[in-house]
Backbone:
């Protein structure tokens, strides 16, 4: 099968390439077809040649010059400095002779690429090296630079890994025997998202998360549908939140050696959150189920995919990720099985409308017979406030607290909600709706924010430009202060001037939020504001439901019994999740409305009421699976 | 776990046994606990000792004397002949020194056993040998004697097999992690019955059949829920029909080496039908998926279970079979999982009311949260005629045909329907409702009938006595003639005097029925009578639906195109399956009505309408699974 495929590609290339083009070798690297050529100038001269080939081969294409077609590194270095404009802000130029690639890191990648890719192609034509461009993050991010350095260092290993994956994607039968979805978690509950999509030939694991507030409850990876883990063909991660990603590294502990498909920002955020997961576990005296070497293993096996690119991930499965509007890099995953045989969409966590940070979810899948759909806010009454109203309420609450000399503390996911709140607060302070007071970012919020600025392409249209071109990066506003000291710094802030604190974790299950509750609890002038979903079993949920006597773990390992005398407010409308209306709209506006929907990622009432509503409104077959079930789709 | 269990049994035994009893060893053989004793007389003296022990240990118990506690074979032989009454009709006495058992085959086993087991115990007390009694079939059956001889010959191997199974049943965790049912076939279709019941620790395969009329469609044994087949812990066969049993031997081809639990008659019928399955396949030029050595493997791995006996089949699963009323030895299988954790019933094929042959299905399960239920006649209109009316119609049709000098041909399953019809015809001829004409039994019908007479305990109360005690065996009536010649004999019958022919196969998919249709087609005086379910895709169904131009395979390998000019009649009411009312009654009268029912073994309309009816009438959760799905039960 595979050899036939390779020779088919060769035949097609020879028909479509100009006579002058010499192809010396064809290889698969992961989902990509790599064309080695001794005449790189032929490719560089024609603006649209590679695009035309990619589209007629229906294949992502990389063209690499053979070694003798390239100029020396020093010549190439000089040519690059000569060709690129000074204001591109070149930070680093790195040559990889084994692939003929040169990686250029720049503050303004657009200027390295040039209009329609012209500048980049000119470098390629003059030097014979293939150019890859990466952006220097406007805020320094340890995560981004660690991830990039690690992947650079592993480049050799990764290449053989990609070749191995490439061979396996391009071999084996392309006709599926069946299509099934198995639920390893996340059914009639929020947490431990994990599913297997299987075709008889191929098994794809979608997500592998933990369950906030119930650390022992992990995905049922021991189910026969997932076993042996070594035989899974591919993993797809919809987004980096721990309830989708926390247990991914454990796959490598049990011998999985295949790829993880995800967006680039999801890759970086995943690493950040998984390391934090280990850190929190060890602080809480739990033995984490894997160690940091497994996080590196996971990272090493990532294959980034851009929104909208159709990517072969198995002989009979193509993956397309689309923006899910939930957090940075979050995606809905579309699987095209066989040649037009069946289509399954996993919504992942979605936000249907635009927010300040992100464009609303993109549900424009050409076909989708089966939909596995999140249902977090699927209850009949789950109508969330308009964000404009929510912002007003938040600003009012903050203003009132500040006026009373109090401090506002907001438990927030480091990734997503925090940046949304930062934009709201910065804007309110800019327009004078709020007095400018310090906004302290505790936990990983600053780092997560820096990662956002490294991937402006993934942000909402207007915001992207503000960060990229206008140097109006709102995240750099001076009232934002990262907490980098210890408890003294926090105590000083708590007893000092009015301020706002954004602190992890978002559901009050760990992290510095415990400390803030402890030190702010006594003073009724302070306010605790919930802005996000609080899952069953979390302390956040219990406080939200009226509990005021709480026991908080202290840094020293003891626990404080605390009576919460501070105000507690619930501001809905900031959720990263679509509300009931948004969920219905997501399904209603799909280009091809599915025949069946599995309602998952919601408590029992939510999945029940949402599936009934979908059935009533659209007449589609709807299910509320339980964990450990398997559904036939085709 | 296992050692603790064994020592627990030992402790309990020592508390409950009289002081004089010496237990030298305890072993597990399959589900049984074998007690070795040097004082067999202590067990033989007390009528109820073994029964009391078995019930307090909740364990089937076998007591075996140690070698030095036994008299010599010749002494024992003399003692047996001395003790047993002459009219017991002893046919064979066989000693097995390795187990201390003596197997006595007798025409009247009751006389060997004696009232309350007295005679049998007296033999044991006087000789030190343990007595096992088997019945000599009133009709000679090649199958029964082949099976018995084979199992005798394999006794050594079987003993180590049983010890291995015994160890595995009594080891491992007894707490199930979950309870699931997976569908490998038989969903929205009739045929290829096969299910997996799994608990996280244990996997049990229930049935493994073919699909009549669609030979290529076999159970999805390659589903991950069943793989690897070598790791399956136990197989349970509900009854011998090929749509439940045909593919069982293939498990051994793929390395399965565990037990098959079934009733004794199912064991014998299974062997008969599987060998016939191979024979038909080779006659039709198909390559069968296994050979006869695999049938022997299957036979060698059987562990017979009696109706109502609770049997440990895994550390966390107990099996109880109950009469399903469908064919000889047919059973519904009740699985008790964990210690009161969950109960699943597989109805198997059921007939709810009494027939001439069998008592109606026994649905008296103490608990049953989940029911996997057959739905063959689950449609709204599937009301079958009362059997009395059906018998009248049949007798009228036969009488009319005979009066017109015609021959009646009835395609019938060798097992079940044929014997029912024999009883009806014999009775009508005895009372003069029908003239006495020859009834020819073609295919395996005579052999199947002989097997029925070997297991009278499995027949309806009144019939059992007629066969056992009154020497009024209706199957021995002289008008029944087995076809043992070739096509000449059949041609002579077809052109001769009026007669009745019962011929396999029951759905006109193979066997001598093709020949009969061929030779009887031309004469409108002849009548073809359907008395059983004709599955989708079978020739029987097509003729039933009006097709009269048919192509029939000939013995010589060619095909005849034939126009059926004989009469075609449909006599409903003889089905081995409950009709819609019977199915509803089965569920209605269960001692513990299930929370959820999976409706299987019926076409799409039947499972759909039956599951709606169950939901409407009892408010239970009902499902119509598809093949390759998995449902959580607990």
Residues:
């Amino acid at each position: 099968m595979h050899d036939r495929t390779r020779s088919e590609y060769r035949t097609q290339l020879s028909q479509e390439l100009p006579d002058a083009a010499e192809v010396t070798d064809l290889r698969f690297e992961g989902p990509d077809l790599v064309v080695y050529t001794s005449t790189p100038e032929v490719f560089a001269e024609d603006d649209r040649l590679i695009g035309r080939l990619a589209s007629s081969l229906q294949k992502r294409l990389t063209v690499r010059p053979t070694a003798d077609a390239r100029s020396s590194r020093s010549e190439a270095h000089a040519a690059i400095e000569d060709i690129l404009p000074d204001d591109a802000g070149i930070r680093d130029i790195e040559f990889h002779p084994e692939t003929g690639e040169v990686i250029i890191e720049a503050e303004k990648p657009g200027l390295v690429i040039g209009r329609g890719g012209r500048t980049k192609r000119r470098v390629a034509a003059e030097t014979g090296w293939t150019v890859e461009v990466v952006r220097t993050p406007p805020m320094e991010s340890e995560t981004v630079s660690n991830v990039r350095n690690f992947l650079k260092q592993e480049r050799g290993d990764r290449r053989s890994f990609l070749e191995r994956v490439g061979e396996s994607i391009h071999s084996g039968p392309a006709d599926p025997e069946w299509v099934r979805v198995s639920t390893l978690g996340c059914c009639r509950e929020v947490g431990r998202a994990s599913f297997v999509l299987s075709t008889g030939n191929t098994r794809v694991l979608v997500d592998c998360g933990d369950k906030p507030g119930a650390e022992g409850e992990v995905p049922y990876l021991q189910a026969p549908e997932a076993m042996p883990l070594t035989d899974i063909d591919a993993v797809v991660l919809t987004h980096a939140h721990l309830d989708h990603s926390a247990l991914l590294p454990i796959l490598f502990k049990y011998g999985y050696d295949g790829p993880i498909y995800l967006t680039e920002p999801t890759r970086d955020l995943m690493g950040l959150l998984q390391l934090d997961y280990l850190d929190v576990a060890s602080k809480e005296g739990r033995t984490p189920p894997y160690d940091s070497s497994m996080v590196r293993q996971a990272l090493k096996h990532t294959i980034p995919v851009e929104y909208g690119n159709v990517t072969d991930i198995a002989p009979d499965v193509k993956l397309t990720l689309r923006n899910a509007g939930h957090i940075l890099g979050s995606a809905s995953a579309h699987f095209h099985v066989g040649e037009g045989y069946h289509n399954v969409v996993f919504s992942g966590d979605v936000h249907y409308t635009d927010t300040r940070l992100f464009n609303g979810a993109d549900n424009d899948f050409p076909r989708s017979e089966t939909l596995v759909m999140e249902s977090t806010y699927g209850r009949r009454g789950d109508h969330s406030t308009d964000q404009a109203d929510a912002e007003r309420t938040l600003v009012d609450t903050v203003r009132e607290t500040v006026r009373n000399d109090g401090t506002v503390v907001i438990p927030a996911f480091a990734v997503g909600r925090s940046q949304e709140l930062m934009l709201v607060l910065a804007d309110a302070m800019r327009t004078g709706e709020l007095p400018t007071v310090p906004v302290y970012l505790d936990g990983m919020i600053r780092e997560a924010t820096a990662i956002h600025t490294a991937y402006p392409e993934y942000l909402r249209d207007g915001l992207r430009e503000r960060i990229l071109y206008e140097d109006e990066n709102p995240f750099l506003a001076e009232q934002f202060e990262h907490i980098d000291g210890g408890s003294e710094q926090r105590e000083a802030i708590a007893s000092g001037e009015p301020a706002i604190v954004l602190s992890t974790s978002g559901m009050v299950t760990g992290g510095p939020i415990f400390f803030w509750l402890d030190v702010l609890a006594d003073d009724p002038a302070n306010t605790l504001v919930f802005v996000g979903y609080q899952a069953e079993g979390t302390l956040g949920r219990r406080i939200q439901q009226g509990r005021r006597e709480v026991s908080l773990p202290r840094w020293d390992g003891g626990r404080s019994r605390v009576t919460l005398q501070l105000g507690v407010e619930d501001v809905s409308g900031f959720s990263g999740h679509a509300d009931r209306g948004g969920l219905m709209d997501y399904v209603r506006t799909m280009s091809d409305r599915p025949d069946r929907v599995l309602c998952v990622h919601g408590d029992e009432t939510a999945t029940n009421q949402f599936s009934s509503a979908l059935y009533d409104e659209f007449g589609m077959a709807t299910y509320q699976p339980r964990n450990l079930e398997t559904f036939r789709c085709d």
About this structure: DSSP finds 21 helices and 28 strands in chain A. Chain A has a mean pLDDT of 92. The radius of gyration of chain A is 25 Å. Residues 460 and 479 of chain A are 23 Å apart (CA to CA).
